[in-house]
## 1
Amino acid sequence: MKFNENYRKLKESYLFSAVAHKVSAYTAAHPDKKVLKMGIGDVTLPLPPAVVSAMQAAVAEMGTKETFRGYGPEQGYDFLRESIRGYYTRRGISLAADEIFISDGAKSDLGNILDIFSVDNTVLIPDPVYPVYVDTNVMAGRRILFADATEENGFLPMPDDGVKADIIYICSPNNPTGAAYSVAQLQEWVNYARKQGAVILYDAAYERFVSGQGLARSIFETEGAEECAIEFCSFSKTAGFTGTRCGYTVVPHALRRGDVSCNKLWLRRQTTKFNGVPYIVQRGAAAVFTAEGERQVEENLSVYRRNARRLTDCMDVLGIRYTGGKNSPYVWLKCPGFADSRKFFDYLLEEANVVGTPGSGFGKNGQGWFRLTAFSSEEATEEAVFRIKKLFSK
Ligand SMILES: *Cc1c(COP(=O)(O)O)cnc(C)c1O
């Protein structure tokens, strides 16, 4: 037996474990101090009541002989696929229900989709970004190129015709920078991908946070994307499903190479290796698209938006440079007075008892930058803002 040697090439996520370690060491040494956690990428508001009732009703169905359900369709129940199709239709995007695959979250599908692509492909990944794209490709042994997201390009790298890539990752609004592409900018990426014969893997986990004029919520708002893009969405950050687990992936029929359909390959992959998302969870997810569910989701999002606003207002007052916060739950700031994200992390922890995430954990271009999240409670966010203001207006 031999192990997959590629796993040796993975960088230990030492940064995130070091961060957790430092926080627990600090709390143990200073039990009297109230440490505010503004670093985690998890939500804090509970599931919307409409989702909870739908799931309770589904639990009752599962416990009754007449309505009990066993194995469901691997790609998801029609009622949820139809609700999602309607959600796209309302935004002017027409999809077929069988282009939508229900998943147990965007992270699984972002990793699993690589099953259907050759290891000989070269991938292009933004830096900094959600670390899953790099790690899943390292595990498979693919060649990786990076698209530099920097202060100069507003953390929105644009395609370079000199770079040859087969699989292109785009995360918009981006985790961690909060930067969001406009439809016009995405159109350039789609044009580039079509010229190269590449596929775009578009992570839209934060699409519901987008409100800015001209900004994209889906790659399918561009022309020709159905021939070159797959979109990954999640109920996690928008409807509080981080622990409940549900997402969906859109694989258009028009995405083909010769006589091979990407949709068919993905269906074959899923029916072989996946047995679907629990009926109860899918009922909960469908409730997100009811009038009541939509309203409750919007209420939760507005809490996070207000928090983001508190953070960006604070940065404005202090004259600290940042991106995000407006169309994203993340505020990405340039560490004031520090070139090293980790040193800034230590300083903020020790002097303000505020925990954030060092930007260097998301790629080399994250060095010197820092991520704060809007997912905390309003009280904690206000307190964090108060402490940061006090610390930096000295
Ligand atoms: C949180 C996050 C995900 C994971 O979503 P799940 O549906 O919970 O697996 C995917 N992409 C990005 C960019 C994220 O930040």
## 2
Amino acid sequence: MTDTIPLSLPDITDAEVRAVVATLRSGRLSIGPQAEEFERLVARRAGRTHGIAVSSGTAGLHLALLALGIGPEDEVITPAFSFVASANCVLYVGAKPVFVDCDPRTLNMRADAVESKITDRTKAIIGVEVFGNPAGMSELAALSNKYEIPLIEDACEGLGGRLGTDAIGGFGRVAVFGFYPNKQITTGEGGMIVTHDDTLADQCRSLRNHGRAGTSRATASGGPAALGSWLEHERMGFNFRMNELSAALGVAQMRRLDELLEMRQWVAETYTRRLMGNADVLVPTVAADCFMSWFVYVVRLSDRFTEAERDEIIAGLRRHDVGASNYFPPIPMLPHFRRLCGHQPGDFPVAESVSHRTIALPFFTRLTGREVDLVCQTLELMIKRASFARSAIEELE
Ligand SMILES: *Cc1c(COP(=O)(O)O)cnc(C)c1O
């Protein structure tokens, strides 16, 4: 019928291709100047002194929890409505995730809901800017100060956004960005830890690099001798480094960040204008002081639709070559968390109700107005079919 419209697509120009090829030709493929430059650019954007490039956003969260000394017996508060990595990282260090339901409008955790879950064992709060929306982050930061419990900002969906004048990535004691290809910028796979805390930064640098001294820039082929040797390991570490090819791609993408965010903003506004008048569809709401960094464009069906109908609408969109997805299933209801934490349906009423009705629509920089219109036409047709199927069934009964 038509060309496929994917759910997401990275924006790679000749500048990125040239940067990666030049790095490939340089002979320096890991632990080098590209990662250092990428770290500077991302840290500066988040208003932080340190950037630590890692192999994925998830690896960054894992290291942030380890560097904060979180382990067995500890509780970590984390959102019920987010990507699964926001909670898996708590399991990696042997701690217990304590889930908090989301606000129905912003989809982020509310500080008062978080406060009610704080116990003597709470050792961290993981705050997520869901879909790139910074709503409520200053309240979470204030709560973290009041109880002296560190806020870990899972900023993997929010690079470049801000709340008033405060950049996403600047709210937590430590924040983590992610660069999977569907994010605002990509490194193929990759992540970045940012923080003001010198000790925490050194620990993260060491943990990502097999436990070598945090300041070590040694490589297998030698390095500045004064900065620690290749085979000195101060602690049990991991290999969560970002390679130089990814970092070169990241540097080229960072230089285009504002341009990329503007294009995403235009696509989001085009969708919102097109769908605003449709009573079956709720478009994202953004408060006046929230400068979204648009990660995805997710609409919600109105309350009269069931989860099964939503799934049928997504399947219909896909049959018509339009990418669509159900961002996100509530994390506590995923099999491994249900086994571990014993939650039952109904424990997180807002997250469950929201997640049964979400549809992520195709969203990337180069989406044209015509394609947005085609996606919306197809969506409206699938919604009509679902409504029609239901009234036919009701008549039979
Ligand atoms: C993308 C994302 C991550 C990290 O993902 P990786 O694929 O590991 O880079 C973590 N948390 C959230 C909320 C995300 O959206």
## 3
Amino acid sequence: MADAPGSDDPRNWKPATQAVRGGLMRSQFGEISEAIFLTSGYAYDSAEQAEARMAGKEPGFVYSRYGSPTAEMLQQRLCLIEGAEACRVTGSGMGAISSAILAPLKAGDRVVAATALFGSCRWILANQMPKFGIETCFVDGADMDAWAREIGKGCQLVLIESPANPLLDGVDIAAVAKLCKQAGALLVVDNVFATPVLQRPLDLGADVVAYSATKHMDGQGRVLAGAILTHEKLMTDVYDPWLRHIGPACSPFNAWVVLKGLETMQLRVEAQSRIAATLADLVADHPAVRAVRYPHRKDHPHYEIHKRQMKSGGTLMAISLKGGQDAAFRFLNGLRIADICNNLGDTKTLACHPSTTTHRALSDAEQAAMGLDRSWVRVSVGLEDVEDLAADFSGALNAL
Ligand SMILES: *Cc1c(COP(=O)(O)O)cnc(C)c1O
């Protein structure tokens, strides 16, 4: 249990305090805002010290591909927020997720993954892994029998995303984690849509959590970054050598931007989720709309799962228009405040057409397998006033 208020162990702080003060390392100048250490290399006091640092026998920085003080502050802050032992940050979300799934595997291994995944994650599993002799079986993320059957056949790694791109599908993280434990497989969760504010996969039994920090962590659409969080042993044995030699390092500047973004993440995510829930209810009643997918609306097919493992419905929704792609395009073109953009988690409301953008590499049949068709629009809800957004959405829908 938490210590008395005033505890100076940051692990006992509440998440909002951890997000503002966690990991803070001040230089001799006593700066209040975290410093950006824009340097590639580090000077050693002696040749002996260089030898000891490189051998890992003395703590300290050696090269910014291995780590930098600014990235280290971000890593410590993320560890606290996520409740993880170890964190490494990368130059993009895909730098983190590709490393999270590639580093532990070898030829002959087998992966089981949910069908509904971020486009690039699916591409790596379907198109790159087979070149290295690693096969992936895709299952419907909501079908527990399919998970039990495929994981039971033997596998080394499982990758899931919940809520998943683009229709906010839910996967029961605790149930899949249990199957993974029995099979001795690593469970990797891409937790980008939920954020650590709303869902903590490590508490549900996951082994590794990966993020695109580009999304809600920066939260203001400025930089790309990513993060891998797991326990100390897996990090030092498996991920550290991979990250150092493959090189998806996060620039100190980008690490700093994300560090500052984290300070307001909880406020932003909670406020954006409230606005998203209101907008989802508003558009669901419109005659031009065929269906709405929002994780905490009762008509979401995976409502029960999302309700159990996510604190609120999150900042994203998907809307299916009755007139198919034509209506979806006219809706996007009719928005006056929200932008057409495939990014998400920004303070600005962003909308896109997954079939022809983020998921265009998938055939119609592959899209259909994840429930996607050309009628769907995905919306990432920002921080604008809910009345202005409601008027914008209603205007674009009324024009259909
Ligand atoms: C954006 C995103 C990624 C990739 O992150 P980048 O920072 O763009 O490399 C991976 N997974 C999900 C769910 C995402 O939304």
